[in-house]
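Researcher: Please generate the 3D structure of the following complex. Treat every line as part of one assembly.
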Amino acid sequence: MWRVTGIAIVTFALTSVSMRSQGLGVPEGLDLSGSWVARNFTDALGNPPAMEPTPVDFLGIPLSEAGRAAALSTSPSQISMPERMCDFYPPTYIVLGPAGLKIWPESELRTGATTAWIVSGWTAYAPFPIFMDGRPHPSKYAPHPKTGFTTGTWVDDVLTTSTTHMEVGILRRNLAPSSDLATMTTRFSRHGDTLTVTARIDDPVNLTEPFYLTRTFVLGKTPLNPASWPCTVGDEGVPKGVVPHYLPGQNPFLDEVTRLYGIPVEAVLGGSETMYPEFRRKIREKYVRPEPCVAKGGTRAGECGRPGLYPPVN
Amino acid sequence: MGPVLRVLIRALSSWAILVAVGAFWTIGSPAYGQGGAQVPVQGNNTPATARATAPFDPTGYWVSVITQNWRLRMVPPRKGDYLGIPISVAGKKVADQWDLARDEASNDRCASYGPPTIMNQPTRLHISWQDDSTLRIDTDYGTQTRVFSFGQPPIQRKRTRQGTSVAVWEARRGRGAMTARYLTVTTANMLPGYLRKNGVPYGEQATLTEYFDIFSEPQGAMIMVVTAVLTDPVYLEHPYIVASQFKKEADGSKWDPTACSARW
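Model: Done. Output below.
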């Protein structure tokens, strides 16, 4: 009897170790799945409940000359074009947009390995996969789909992803554009029920330096809808066939941030130096602190903030 | 086989099962060989210090990279601008009474340089080890010093601007590798202060938890992201969560200490 028991023990132990070495144990990394509620305090000016950023607000964007020219020629009304109204943004929108993230794994059911994480949760971008199976990125000549192409690896329990093959997108919600050569490296760093997502956007056309953006999320109990909601084209005031734009030197919003907030236009037009503390020295004598913010008639909704503006996480 | 021998064999079989199961969990564990969740020890069997067990090197000079909320951080915002803060009714009431002239006449102009806001300001940081269990952060913006104690912090009877901060290298999961840890700092015992230079308040009951992540970038560059969670049962409706980004600099040549200012 003891021989049988001994053989069973050895067989069990060897089989267990063998299964684990084949990837049949705990999947790599952390569990990121769930509905992550956005806490838009880090980028409160760019997202609801604030209004959209003013059309010419490139503060802190390391724009190149070409990028600035493209941004100044772009009208935010382009999103009201019937041809673009139901279009998607590239995956950069997860660090630019207002919404939470719905994240779930796709697993290989024979081994249990996570082959991809899917990121979704809002209407404005298509749910996109982060491939975890080691597949290479496509050729640079391959088509650029709405989802771009993203691969991921775990680096010290931080999901680190690389996105290429994006369509032309945006760098801020006033439609300052990113090119189709832009790439994004993203870190999904979980601290308990708080998720910090930091993205580095590189764009050889429109940026002179990497553009870092960070958003924070809290794990919620109410499920976010993973689907992109159906979109119906309506009339938002831009006729079919018209592309709203401004010719060089004719953007009427160039001084709007200066008028509203007293910030000199050299800052408003962005550029890498506007990201760093020493830039303050340049504008100290020119900055005029605006009059107190009073949330009543004549002030844009959500502009000043108030109690109750940010709902709790549930 | 005699009854005594049978009992002995049964006992040995039970031990063998325990040993095999133990070996399986040890060898099969992802943490095996990586330090796991055990407390590291030095060669002389004394627990390793916080400095010796650091999963990354936070020391050096760091500069803030301000790409978000620019006009609320790079320049002093107008009075009454609470956008991006889950301010409570009580907090709004205090903020609406803010008076720049009164602050400028005060001896303490550092109200907007406390832990809940200093990391989110346009600053450079100099991070160094004060000793093997104390990490120190100096800021050139307002010339402030924060001290993070691993283990028991020194007893502090009076509240201070920078409060008392306790630090720990925290695993993202129970059996995570040593290299997969991040720095968690919990700060309390702070003097009341401002979240912005327009008098948005935080109070004595506020507590701050910060998570420090450091990421390697191409060409040897490093970035640090500090995620701060501030709770204040009086002046905030919910936790105020805000992230700050820093880029590592080669040296301190751009270090530019300034005094606290209520106006700029």
